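Justification of resources, computational component.

The compute hours requested in this renewal are based largely on the per-chain cost of generating structure records like the one below. Each record pairs the submitted sequence with a full structure-token output. That output is archived, and it is also reused by downstream analysis tasks.
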Amino acid sequence: MELPQKSILFLKTCLIILLLLLIGLAGYGVSALMKGITSSLIFEKPGYIVLLVAYMALIPLIFSIFHGLRILQFISKSSKSIDLIFLSAQMIRKSFLFIAFLALCILPIFFYIGQMDDAPGLVLVGIILIVVPLAVSAIFRCFQYILKDHFLS
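The structure output for this chain reads:
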């Protein structure tokens, strides 16, 4: 097996492990969320709303992991499907923009929890949750630009 194929296999393995870890983490948090829903604590404690939004952000994250696997599959076949790679990168970029939007929506909850618990570092965590998906989206936009520039010129 040549070096690019080994790298692609390594990246596929990493993405599959990440996917399994995210699903396992989501399964662990379901019990806490169900406890909050059944005992009507979901509106009394803001942490449950943050957990609910995290589950909403998990869907586009899993979607983007599948598109990352799709890109790696197109690259490993070395086919001329540059349009499909471009569309997958665009879907990943849009899903990370949606995750950043969800994080922006729960930023006031981070402010509220930070004031209640006297934890100003929690506000910084909320801001980081917005900046990281925006940075990943910008990286994929640059990736799209490079693909377009390299293959269409």
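Residues 114 and 120 are 5 Å apart (CA to CA). Helices lie at 3-38, 46-77, 82-105, 107-116, 121-152.
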